[in-house]
Amino acid sequence: MPSKLLPISNEEKKWVQKLSPRRGLTYHFSRGCLRHAMSNMTGLEPLDIPLKADPGESPSLAEGLGHISMSHCSDALFIGWSAAKIGVDIERKDRQFQAHKLSKRFFSQYENCEIDDLTPSQAKELVLKRWVIKEAAIKWQSGKIATDINQWIWENKSSFAYHKKLGHKVKVYEQNHDQWTFAIALDVDSVTSKPIICLN
């Protein structure tokens, strides 16, 4: 994590002023890091990256530069970049929540049955894994958690997730690293067998 905020565009600075102090800080931090990372990968100056990343909207690059997705938790930022559509999500493994209550509220009956016979810690691990996979799929879709979290279905250990209502299907990749768990959603016909993960 950089010790200071990195440069962002004038348009992004205007968004910072419109947001609450906490959201504005998070917005500045994440967009600055995204520009910095893209600069390292493309050779362009950070402020020359043709990025549109309004609050609450999926970030996008100019045509021909591929697709991006990003997610952040309290102490990590996860950025995905791909030639085709991509969605990513990251959460801390020690995030506090009630696994059965969360599952019954947002997940399908089949998915709830998968945690019935698990210990509390096993149920929490599976529910968190399911959440990051579904949220990555929603970001791939450019959807909304409120309307799509219960539509995306992921069966434990499956390499795919599908949207019940819209018929979307994505390839998913989930992994733990240190104190985080993260997921990546890619086009179902993606030839990528295992995404390249760079840690910094």
Protein described:
The longest helix is centred in the first third of the chain and has 22 residues, at 21-42. The chain has six helices and nine strands. With 200 residues, it is α+β, with helices and mostly antiparallel strands. The chain is globular. It has helices at residues 10-18, 21-42, 99-106, 109-113, 120-141, 145-148, and strands at residues 51-52, 60-61, 67-72, 77-82, 86-92, 152-153, 160-163, 169-177, 180-187. The strands form three sheets. It has a five-stranded antiparallel beta sheet with strand order 5-9-8-7-6, covered by helices on one side. 35% of the residues lie in helices and 23% in strands. It has two domains: 10-87, Alpha-Beta Complex (Ribosomal Protein L22, Chain A), CATH 3.90.470.20; 92-178, no CATH class. A hairpin with a 7-residue loop joins strand 1 (51-52) and strand 2 (60-61). Helix 1 runs antiparallel to helix 2 (21-42).
